[in-house]
TrEMBL record:
Residue ranges crossing the lipid bilayer per the database entry: 5-23, 35-54, 66-83, 89-109, 130-151
Protein name, entry field: Phosphatidate cytidylyltransferase
Membrane topology per record: Multi-pass membrane protein
Gene Ontology CC annotation, any one: plasma membrane
Family, per entry: Belongs to the CDS family.
EC category name: transferase
Pathway(s) per entry: Phospholipid metabolism; CDP-diacylglycerol biosynthesis; CDP-diacylglycerol from sn-glycerol 3-phosphate: step 3/3; Lipid metabolism
Predominant cellular place of this UniProt entry's protein: membrane
Enzyme Commission code(s) on record: 2.7.7.41
GO biological process, one term: CDP-diacylglycerol biosynthetic process
Molecular function (Gene Ontology), one example: phosphatidate cytidylyltransferase activity
InterPro entries, alphabetized: PC_trans
Amino acid sequence: MKKRILVSGESIIAYLGASALILPDKWTSFLPSNFTPTFIFFLFVLALLLVTVLSRNLFTFDDAGVIILGMLYVGMGFHYFIAARGESLTILLYALFIVWVTDSGAYIFGRKLGKHKLAPRISPNKTWEGSICGSLAATILCSIFIFYYPIAGYSMIEMVLITIFLSIAGQFGDLIESALKRYYGVKDSGKILPGHGGILDRFDSLLLVLPMLHLVGII
């Protein structure tokens, strides 16, 4: 979206930095104990800052800031994707169902009932009616899922409240991605998945839902 070259020195540093955050902690167990994933990530951040000097500001601090933010955003989001699967397939499916049902419900009910715009300057097609109905649909269907596949240590009432929270978080994840595209003046985040808005669009809600699953203690 920022029109940086995908195969360049700074891009390779970014890929490696994001990977340091994505990979499970145990994958770096062969390294000295002071080389934690967070420290390795910081080394790549320092490398990006060094590039700003070596490139004589052809690669600017603004460029470095955007890439570092992207490394954190994508790296931590997918780290918790792997962590959720490591906990159990049930937890990962629960997160996926929240996103899928919320998105589908918001789209279906928003088209039929939507009248009041949710965030017209960011995503003009989204409505309050669609948003509320999407979260309601996710809460109902995910509650049925949890009834048959319970998550240990959480009551049904707790899971209902958590589902509502995560459904709302997922919609904020979607809006964040829409805001990014609006800022950079692009329709899609990438061209690898034509008609789907790019790969990042397929995961934008999950990138917020999965860390929130960690926040509430499920992963």
